[in-house]
Every structure is written in structure tokens, then in C-alpha cells.
Amino acid sequence: MVNTLIASWRSYPMWLQWVASIAVMFKLFVCGLSLGWASPYIAQFLSGDSPFPATTEEVSWISSMFQLGRIPGAILAAIGVQYLGSKKVLIGNGLALLIFWILSIAAYSVPWLYVTRFICGASTEAVNICYPIYLGDISSPEIRGTVMVLAMNGLIIGSMVGLTIGPYVSMRVYAYVGLVPTVIFLAMMLLLPDSPYYLASKKKFEEAEKSILAYNRKAEVDKEVKSINAFVAETQSMKFRDRLRELNLPCNRNATMNLVWFTFFAQFTGANPISVYLETISTRAMLTVISASSMPLVTTGLGVLGGWLVTLFADKWQRTVMWVISNGGAGLCMTAMGLHFYLLNIGVDPNSLQWLFILSMGISGLFYSVGTTPVPHILLGELFGARIRTLAVCICCSFGGIFGFLSIYSYQYLIDIVDEAYVYWIVAVVALLAVIYGVVMMPPTKGKSLTEIQTELIRK
Fold this sequence. Notes:
The chain crosses the membrane at residues 12-39, 90-108, 147-167, 173-192, 259-278, 290-314, 321-343, 355-379, 391-410, 422-440. It is a multi-pass membrane protein. It is found in: Membrane. One of its GO terms (molecular function) is transmembrane transporter activity. The protein is an all-alpha fold. It has one domain: Growth Hormone, Chain: A, CATH 1.20.1250. It has 21 helices and no strands. The protein has helices at 2-11, 15-36, 38-47, 56-84, 86-106, 110-138, 144-165, 171-191, 196-201, 205-215, 221-236, 240-247, 250-268, 271-284, 295-313, 319-345, 354-372, 374-380, 389-417, 420-441, 450-459. It is globular and about 70 Å long. The model has no long low-confidence stretch (mean pLDDT 80).
């Protein structure tokens, strides 16, 4: 029975594309574990129940250091993809995450956590650059969106696993757990072929043909090789200054600015501070029906559900639909969150408000995973031609690191100076602006080849 299923699966011409997606999913699972680390252990530091002491200011920096690491991670990954290829950079990221977990096992003071969180942020952002390029290069247009979203589900699943085990194990044991999927990812990735684009850029044309056939056994090899060689020839003939000039062409400049704005909205519609401070938020919300440490599981569990729903519909829905549903729903959830804290402040019985907090916070996880998180990453692999892709993605991801740092750091700052209800209402307004921006500016990329997308952008 098992052999029959394996034989049937291997007869499917694009099966290796799915294997590649699962390998990347393991990598993003590890990144999700590192994100899930924040909520339980930040709560321990804030409550004073931590392995070593930390001030409120130090805790804020521990939370934000991950985001600061994203900026050099984006730059190094862009350079690495250009010269080493996306697969090798993904493997390098895996090795960096091994170092992160090992250092986490040895951590005994706040400066150690600064270093580990910085390394983790750099590695995670490098992944954000590499995997859309890698999967975009090897996947067929008819399944590209689904392959991307399947891989991205690893992030939310890893976060959920982290939130599940975090309250019950030490930071050291948590790091040992993180080593296992990291090793699995490295083992899988080492066995996969390089992207045909990278192989052609190194003039390994026979290997490029084998790579094309490995990832799609029914591919028209001659046609694919001709197209890839044309892209690579143009790319290799360009100097860095030429890339900057091409990036400044109206179509590319507009696409870059467009993606920067989508990245801004993805970082400032509440997902970041909620992922970091959710257990602390639950405590301030006077949650008693379930424990504060259980609330992150509810939110992340619904996020996993949303991620798998998107896997089913990613290549059936327009990106605009995903974005509008996601940010519209998140905006409603943040409005309800603000109402919850407002009612608490005017003296309403906390017990009568439990349902409002659980419902709004829980469903927010589902909405974020439907579009706010995946859509910018899907667009990263679709909007730019081969000649400027790594440069444009580096710029967008660097902005993502800056926006992510500001969203987390400003959250704690706003909580200290204004009523918490107004913080969530501000986030709700940003979500509404994200919906409007998506309706007006979202490029139609569903079901189109990368060449077709570039042609349409140039015409505009």
C-alpha cells in the first residue's frame, strides 16, 4: 500500500516542487519556533520568574533585537543569492540557526539573549529573501501560490508549537527542541537540486536541464533553457550601477515602493506586538476563563487553520481578496480589543468581557494568516525580474526589519503613555488603510508566469 502511494506520488510530474516546499516549511517551522519563544519567555522576564533578571528596558530590547537583526540579514542574503544561489544561502541560514540554538543553550545573561535574538532575526530575514526566490524559480505558475503558502505554514505551526511548550520547559530545553527540525531541514535541502537559474548563471547548462526536469518532468526543456539563458545573460552583463538604474525605471520603482507599503502594513496591523506580548496582553486583559499562557495557543491555532485554508485557495483567489479579508478582519478584531480595554477602564466587570477578548484575539490569528502575512512574501517572488530581483527584495526586506522593530518598540512605548484601548484602535485604523491600499494598488499576479507579470508591469 505504502509503495503504491509512493510510486503514484513520484509519477506526478511536479512532485519535487512539493518536496522543496516541505523542506522550506521545516526551515520556516524553525523560524516560527524562534518567534514563539518570545511570548512565554518575555512574560517570564516581565513577571520576574526568569532564569536571570532583566529590567523592563532590557526586555524591550530583547523583544526588538530580533527585528534589528533582520536588516543585515537582508543585505547579506541579497549578496549571497546573487553570487551563491538561493539554495546555498538557505543552507547557510540553517547553519546559522544551529548556532543560534547552541548559543541559546549556553545563554546565562541578557547580553547573550541580545546576540541570539539578533542572529535569529538575521537568519529569519535571510530566509524571507531566499525562499520566495527559490520557490519562485522552481515552481510552475499553476501551483506557485499554493507552494509558497504551504511553505509559509511552517512559520505559524512552529510558532504554535513554541507557544505550546514554552510555558512548560526551560529556555535551554526549548533550544534543544529547536535543533531537531533544523537538522531535518538541512538534510532535505542538501538532497534537492539547485535552481536552474543559478546553474545556468554558472554555465552548468547540463545540470540546469536536469534541474528543470527534476522539478517538472513534463517541462519543455528546450523552451525553458532558452528562456532561462536569456534572463541569465542579461543579468550577468549588468554591473551594480546598471541594476540601480534599472531599479529606478518607473515600472520597477513603482513595484518596489508598492511592496514597501505592503510590507509596512503587514508590520503595523498588530501581528508583531501580539506575537511577542500576547501572554502579557492576556494578563492585562484580566483573562481568567483560561490561563494567560493558553491564549497564545488559541490565537496561533486559529492562525494555523487560516494558513491551511489559504493553501487550498491561494491559486484560486486573487491576492487582493486575500489581503482585504485579512486586514479587514484584523481591523475588526483590533477594534473589539480596544473596546474590551475601554470597558475594563470604565469599571465593567472583567468576567462579563472574557468572551470579547477571547473571540477578538483568537480570530485575529486566523485573519493575519489569511493574507497580511503571506501576500507580501508571495509578491516578493513575483514582482521583479531576474536582473534586479535580489536588490529589490533586499530593499523591501530591510524596510521590513525597520518596520518590524518600530512596530514592537513603539507598542510598548504607546502602552506606557496612552490608554491601551487607543493603541488597538490606532492599529485598527492602520488595518483599514491597508484594505484601501490593497484594493487600489494590489497587482494582479495570480496564475501568471513571471515573464507575463513583468510584461504587464512594464506596460503600466
